[in-house]
Task: structure prediction
Amino acid sequence: MTNVARYWEEIGVGEEYLSPGRTVTEADIVNFAGLSGDWNVLHTDAESMKHSLYGERIAHGLLGLAIQAGLSARAMPRPFETLAFTGLRWRFKGPIRIGDTIKVQVRVKEKREGSMPDRGLIVLSRQVSNQRGEVVQEGEMDLLIARRPTQ
Result:
């Protein structure tokens, strides 16, 4: 198998990939709070959160979105020849807790011709699940993919 990136023509609707797992840690949450500036008590105040809906601190939704992006890339045996990330439709369905191990199921949902002959668009559906099989996030992402160069 080769690691050469795949062009638009080589990608098939219905292809599916499952990522390896990734355990979300307290350090991830603290680092993301520092990076994003989001110090909301949901993520940073253990005492307050003991009496909340969740009973404990939870990860930032956007942290989960970022982690799934990396996991999705690890799921594919060969990367796509991606030119741009062009769209996102996303739902946050449940909390990601400290210690949860998440995985991402990726499926090529759609392929469309691009506005120029050297590119095409693909739509990926992604579903993030925890170790209990609960879907915590899901949505679709649009990618602009290079077409195979003509000789």
